[in-house]
Design a protein that fits this description.
Helix content: 25-40%
Number of strands: 9
Structural class: alpha/beta
Distance between the termini: 36 Å
Order of helices and strands: EHEHEHEEHEEHEHHEH
Largest sheet: 9 strands, mixed
Radius of gyration: 17 Å
């Protein structure tokens, strides 16, 4: 097994079907899809059950209590059989060639440990808002890292073996777990790249900026301190 796709969903009934369909309809078809329902109280669990009944590549896991994204991602990675781990959020939409192009890139460039891509921000109605583009080359990504997150989390595919060296996500971080992991990965000498092609539609709901700013504040301070001390 070369690719494991990991996703955690919590109360995502409005957008979950689109996210699941965008993965099962990928041009690259040989993968396993580990999908957590994090104790949702809407129809998220039922949607996952329906999809997994129809597609054996989906491995559904149902939490009895809400554990949060970070814990679920580490659990999914521990279960993953794939050489490459691809992230997917439950409200985003992957372009059909996403997995194929990222697999090819990692196959062709063995020195790269993680590849992301450009993304297109969309609103709740699926309407395009703006282009989300990140620096391409490793040295430009590293240069931006202390100032802003240079990699869109739900676009990434990384080598499981490479990130095992840093223990994957830090479960002390309920949010910004991706940003924190990039810092530790960079400190370990892992190499990043962002494809400049748009391979994902990134969902921004009406409360996106307010929710993100409040939830990230305590963790961003910890990340800044880590960077200063490293």
């Amino acid at each position: 097994m070369k690719v494991s796709i990991v996703m955690s969903a919590y109360n995502c009934e409005l957008f979950l079907e689109q996210a699941l369909e965008s993965i099962i309809n990928q041009s690259y078809q040989e993968f396993e899809y580990i999908v957590f329902d994090d104790a949702s109280i809407d129809s998220t669990k039922k949607i996952i059950q329906n999809f997994s009944n129809k597609d054996s590549r989906i491995n559904p896991i149902y939490n009895d209590v809400n554990k949060g994204l970070t814990v679920n991602l580490n659990k999914a990675i521990s279960l993953a059989r794939g050489e490459y781990i691809a992230r997917m959020d439950a409200d985003d939409i992957a372009f059909s060639s996403r997995i194929e192009k990222q697999v090819k890139f990692l196959d062709d460039y063995q020195e790269i440990d993680l590849v992301g891509s450009a993304a297109l921000d969309i609103n709740e109605a699926g309407e395009e808002i703006q282009l989300r583009k990140s620096p391409k080359l490793h040295h430009d990504i590293i240069a931006l890292l202390p100032k802003a997150n240079p990699i869109t989390h739900s676009t990434v595919m990384f080598r499981k073996k490479s990130f095992a060296s840093i223990g994957y996500y830090n479960e002390a971080y309920r949010t910004t777990q991706d940003y924190e992991m990039w810092f530790r990965a960079a400190g370990k000498g892992l190499k990043f790249h962002n494809l400049q092609e748009i391979l994902l539609k990134y969902r921004m709901d009406n409360n996106y900026h307010k929710r993100k700013s409040h939830s990230k504040m305590p963790y961003l301070g910890k990340i800044s301190l880590y960077w200063c001390e490293s």
